[in-house]
Design brief:
elongated, 6-stranded parallel beta sheet, alpha/beta, 4-stranded antiparallel beta sheet
């Protein structure tokens, strides 16, 4: 769960950067429209999608022109068929045109993330395994994409380097051992979760002995995952990661692991095809 203050801060940062990037010294094309011209526009989706990104669009038009009215035709998390309306906009024609691209960029990207996640979560139906995101996100959209993952029904892994420990191979080498790394983590921040990435059964045993909260099975075969689940026997949560696709997701979940993390749900996101037309 993303803390509300962090979410609000991210939204403001995202929209300020997006508007600055797009408008620069001024929208010269919008100047073709009379300053007092009023406009109404409808945004539709051209393909099936899960809606995500409403807070970004609302905040964007609130900053650009508070007089613009944003009337949503669906709610966050709704599944919409192709050609369904998402929102109606009314206000200064210049403002609608100036904000169009930035608003649609957020909607198409976050909805694309949520839509893919919803599809993958559906493949896990009937298992206890939860789908996790990673830090493999688009630059400057970390919180936004993780928000979209949660809207799609997935679960957020750590937000960054500050809210949980993830001890990997290089950390282990630098610290001297898995036990030393976990012990140091407990001293630094005893209340934060500690996860250890392992590549072998020997490392798994070391992580269990060190009492890690979560153990990531990196590129384990399905058979080895089943063995690891049986051996761990609830002493730690197990996360599967590495070369997992929609084709293998269900098989991995059926090994009994608690979590599956997939970087592709954020780094390989495909934007939804949206369209805005004046009406």
């Amino acid at each position: 769960m993303i803390p509300q203050p962090l979410l609000l801060e991210a939204i403001q940062h995202n929209i300020q950067f997006a508007l600055s990037e797009d408008i620069g010294s001024g929208d010269i094309t919008a100047l073709l429209i009379p300053a007092d011209a009023h406009g109404c526009a409808k945004v539709i989706t051209r393909e099936p999608m899960v809606l995500a990104g409403i807070p970004w669009v609302n905040a964007l038009f609130q900053q650009l022109d508070p007089s613009v009215t944003v009337d949503w035709q669906a709610q966050e998390g709704d599944f919409l068929a192709a050609n369904s309306p998402l929102l109606l906009l009314s206000g200064s024609a210049r403002s609608l045109l100036t904000g169009e691209r930035a608003a649609l960029n957020f909607l198409q990207t976050l909805s694309g993330t949520a839509t893919k996640v919803r599809e993958l979560v559906g493949l896990l139906s009937g298992t206890h395994t939860q789908l996790l995101d990673t830090r493999k996100t688009l630059p400057n959209l970390r919180i936004a994409q993780k928000y979209a993952v949660s809207i799609g029904g997935g679960r957020n892994h750590r937000l960054g380097l500050f809210d949980a420990f993830l001890i990997k191979e290089n950390h282990i080498m630098a610290a001297g051992s898995i036990h030393a790394a976990v012990a140091a983590a407990r001293q630094i921040a005893a209340h934060k979760p500690v996860e250890v990435e392992v590549e072998t059964f020997d490392e798994l045993e070391q992580a269990l002995a060190a009492q890690a909260d979560i153990i990531m099975l990196d590129n384990f075969s399905h058979d080895d995952m089943r063995t690891a689940v049986k051996h761990t026997n609830g002493r730690a949560k197990l996360e599967a990661s590495g070369n997992i696709s929609s084709a293998t997701l269900r098989q991995v979940a059926e090994t009994g692991v608690d979590f599956i993390s997939m970087g592709a749900i954020t780094k390989d996101v495909t934007a939804i095809d949206l369209s805005m037309r004046f009406i």
